[in-house]
Amino acid sequence: MNCSLDSFIEGSSGNGEVQASGSASEAKSFSGYLVEVGYDGERKSAFIKFYDPNHNRIRVWYDNTGHLPYCYVKEGLDAVKSNEAVAKHPGLERLESAVKYDALRDVKVELTKIVAKDPLSIGGKPSGSIRDLVKAWEADIKYVENYIYDLSLKPGLPYVVKEDSIVESEFEIPEEAKQTVQDTIREREKEYVDLTLNWLKLLECPVPWYLRAALDIEVYSDVANRVPDPREAEYPVICASIVGNDGRSHIYLLEREGFEKKDLPSLNAEVQFYDDEKALLTEVFKRIEEYPFIITFNGDDFDLRYLYHRAERLQIPRETVPIELSKDSASLRRGVHIDLYKFFFNKSIQVYAFSQKYRENTLDEVAVSLIEEGKIEIQNPISQLTYQELAEYCLNDAELTLKLTTFNDDLVMKLITILARISYMGLGDVSRQGVSNWIKSMLYKAHRERNMLIPRSDDILSLKGITTTQAIIKGKKYKGAIVVEPVQGVHFKVSVLDFASLYPSIIKVWNLGYETVICPHEDPACRGNLVPGTPLWICKRNRALESLLIGTLRDLRVKWYKPKSKDPQLPEEKRKLYQVVQNALKVVLNASYGVFGAETFPLYCPPVAESTAAIGRYVITKTIEKARSLGVNVIYGDTDSIFLGNPERAQLEKLMEWSREELGLELEIDKEYRYVALSSRKKNYLGVYPDGNVDVKGLTGKKRHIPVFLKEAFSQLIGILSQVQSREDFEMAIEKIKGIVRKCYLDLKARRMPMEDLAFHVMISKTIEGYVKTTPQHVKAAQLLEGSGYEVKPGDIISFVKVLGDPGVKPVQLAVKEEIDVGKYLEYFTSTFEQVLDALGVDMEELMGGTKLEAFFGG
DNA sequence: ATCTATGGCAAGCCGA
DNA sequence: TCGGCTTGCCAT
Fold this sequence. Notes:
By secondary structure, the chain is of the alpha+beta class. Helix content is 40%, strand content 17%.
């Protein structure tokens, strides 16, 4: 794709001045990856940022037409409002009046973003007749925030930037990938195949190495444990560290009275002292400018924000400050800022990309979990540390931050790049925003490419309505998945079958989307295509955009990236990249169903979400029926999986074949267990693999908040059960378990374990005052904490122990061993163990020989 | 300018 | 004392 760069000029890299257009022509020729597109409020122009990997720098191109965007004019819109022609815009055709589109409101939204290169907007104000306005709009819809869309620019992909045009770099899809994908996808529609190949091109393209540095600062504070307000920036920056992945590390220290200045040779960094904070900051800014990417942990809200305001306060000239602030983020004038705090905080990333390896979102927790290194523990408040301690601490933070982007072959940078390509968002945006925004951006882009209008949320709602089924859980909008009542007991040789990416597959196969649910056609083919268990029907004429996009992504993951990520033939490096892509697709696909049921999603469409779940129920129910008719013992199932007791190969094959033929869905063998112990509770089981590995699902003994003491006892229990080979082995196992129970009880009674091991760890999700209906125990503990001078914020983990007397809990920090309520812990212990034991058919009392625990121990 | 969904369990709170 | 409700954590 060729795009004109006529109107763009390149911002020079040195001093913030802009070179004149034309004179920069030789500098214009380079190749680089598109990393960010946006609007610069100060300069009042749009920009494109490229990362040039040959020179390791960002090159920014500003729009120089001078009359760019923001020509929102109310009168013009009011006029358009009354114009019927707008409502008959051809772009509406595809919606088939399914969505009676109030084009006007879209104009209002989009006008703010129109590139005003037509005569209608002179000096930023549209003029001319309504007719002209509409015409111009039809002919030339330009979305600003979206030069991406305008110019069909794809973030994360390489371009060759020439004299005054930019050209997508030549890249051919590897033949094997192309062939495999073409051979394996079922769909034969041209649109489907083309789109799949398009994605493939996007995802196969190599990811560059990014030159980058992590930044961390420390600020003086006269109150210990209080974080200084970055908007006030009233205290001096006493230390800053910048650690690059080019091997350079720098520490900037502020000289202060009462601290003895000396060399700090033990640090693996270049150390510089400054007696003037202004000079220090200026150096830091210079260094920042040397790196195309700056990585922080919470830089949006703290480090960069503080530096900006501190610079303001110290009257450092604006041109030397490379930072630009917006409400919730901080960016760099000539670089890209990535705030890992926001990235790792993203629930989807946490769960699907890092399988919940970290639970709290602090630098320490994330780093310990992912790279097995933590923050340096300091005994004194920051402001009292020696230069050596301060420098070490600050440097370590920056090093950790950098390592979070370098570990596992730059995994995080690759993940961000791939997500940027899927979502058509810049690297910075994709790392800050949530999955609903990625999917929104992806779908919007697809609409624009096809010249379809983007429907308004309330139009979808009023035309497609709300849901028709009743949720099981009070307060939910519609009925969700089925969980099969487990057959309590121990089952040997269990196969677990599941539908790979069930919901995305359903969206694909059933053609779900806001256009196609309850489509307006009178066609009996459509009307008769009912969603099982609902009065809803699905269009047979047109393919829904959502179905198309989600379907193609699903196919690529299932048919190409997932298998390739495990292919031992591939070199390590290649395989890892496939793993990253596979994971990125997982993140997007897993969220793709949920967003349609989320009010905040701009294409919110309850019947789409409802249909997906309803079809899921239908699919699993039919599969269970089929399995039973084949004589297989179905012992459990949840949403998209069924657990089969001792099935024959042939039966499994038949079932999978049936699913492919009858349901059009791929049913696969997910796991095979040596045995599974099912309790009577749903979503609670324990499965032992042939090699002795154990899956523990839902059992209390594994939950985050329970005391270490219980977790350890529980894991001993699991250890014993993992050795059980056959039914006969249980007897011995139970004897061993008795031993554990006895030991734990005695330890508890004698209060032998450290008190920390008895602490529950529960997250407080609101402020203390936010709890009005009830006051749960962790909140009571939090109140006590606050009373003794600690600060408690939402998201903090409250550690408390159960004690005798009122209110029954105390924060660990404040409790003493003697007041521990041993009885309560015994109850917990019993119930934790019971969950496993009742699956084995023994209860605690029986285990102890028919007596109550207390009696058994003479307690 | 943020924010995928529903189902299920254990424990504790609190009003009837 | 009982039962519904709130909360947090987990499964999918």
